[in-house]
Amino acid sequence: MRIKLEIMEEKTVILLMTTPPPAFSPWGVPARLPPLGLAYVAGALEKAGFQVQILDNYQLNTSIDFIKQEIERLCPEIVGVTCGSVTYQRCIEIAKAVKELRPSCKVVVGGWHPSYLPDTMLQHPEVDYAVMGEGERAIVELANHIAKGNNERATAKIPGVACRFKGKILKNPPKFISDLDDIPYPARHLLPMEIYDRQIGYLNAKPVDVMNITRGCPYRCNYCETNKLWGPKYRSFSPTRVVEELEYMIENFGSKGIYFIDDNFTINKKQTIALCHLMKERKLDLEWACDTRVDLLSRDLLVEMREAGCRTIFFGVQSGSPRILEKLNTCTTTEKTVEGFKLCREADIHIACSFMLGIPGETIADMETTYKFAKKLDPDWCTFYVYIACPNSNLYEEVLQKGLYDRMDNFLAFVKTAQFNYEQVVAIQQRFQRGFNTSPKTLLRRIRRDGFSSFLKSLL
Fold first, then answer.
1. What crossing angle do the helices spanning 299-307 and 269-281 adopt, rounded to 10°?
2. How confident is the model at residue 27 (pLDDT cuts 50, 70, 90)?
3. CATH 3.40.50.280 spans which residues of the chain?
4. How confident is the model at residue 28 (pLDDT cuts 50, 70, 90)?
5. 198-459: in CATH 3.80.10.10
6. 41 contacts 110 by C-beta, under 8 angstroms
7. If you ran DSSP here, which 8-state letter would residue 389 be given?
8. What is the number of H-type helices and E-type strands within the chain?
């Protein structure tokens, strides 16, 4: 698919782009969803008066030659690139291509990997700045400095920005945004909305769009690094702001369903209920799904959510082994999971969940326990994932220190222990997934939920 970006007016031009995973990567592109994080950054830059374009290369996977053509045509003063650990090499390739064509253009990287390992980005001379943590305020302040002539001493003091200064790498800790309502809507109008799926299996409504309404996580799961990106303090947009954005989505993009892709949607019960009341008061004709924890539910809360349009909740159960749950430090138990699922069923809310396999210290017997637990829970949707250690989590540090891996892929560690290696866990994962999806109970549920014709079409 060819994407031609709009040529800008006589203002500072900023090109923002995502980066695709490498070919044959086990990560792949699991869903065609818009890059909300980059769209939030674009919205903040537009509000500050900059001319912005977005190239969602994670989905489009355009060539370096195409990117060069766009750089030559748009002549941006700043190029911002989102980088994850799995896309690290491609990000550096893009930075080199930009500098080859426009040496004066400033290359700014942001996202998960630069937030955790900014030194690995700035070791490349083609990268000028790394934004750590939330990007909206840091990138606007940085872009303003660059547009005004770039006083290096002042630029080197911007919170959340890492840069080279006087032969050293300076890393200024980010300041998290306390009032999220100050952030403009994501600049979805800059995205090629026609390329995204805009549907999910959890909802019957179409089209479905995604929203993120909270940031920060107070939990300390050992496999996760989220609270180091968004901070340990939970923050959220106000219910009024959320509903106004929902109305904007309905009016401008025809949204019929929403997937709230927040880790802990129901962490603030009072605020969640207030949002549900407001959604009902405004008579929003929407189905929606969300993610949360099994220990953040109550019967009255789920009733409110169901009446406001909630149809499915997704849970990261992770394991059926109490010993592994304790190692992961999830602060949940199998008993809490059973109770949470029971409450959802009583409220007529569908259940989706996921499990991880291949945790360091896990045994094959633990994995079998997880599979049996998944079958006992009997969720409407269930996915088994193979664990790959990601930078900046406690478990990642354990994997590196103990040498519990047999190869690295752009800072991602493929776990190997005395019990298993990555390929063996993949085989187990495929067996579990196939066994769950083809069980008579699961097939019958799908027919009842989706209808026989839809079920048959999905098989074909």
1. 30
2. low
3. 13-171
4. low
5. no
6. yes
7. B
8. 19, 17
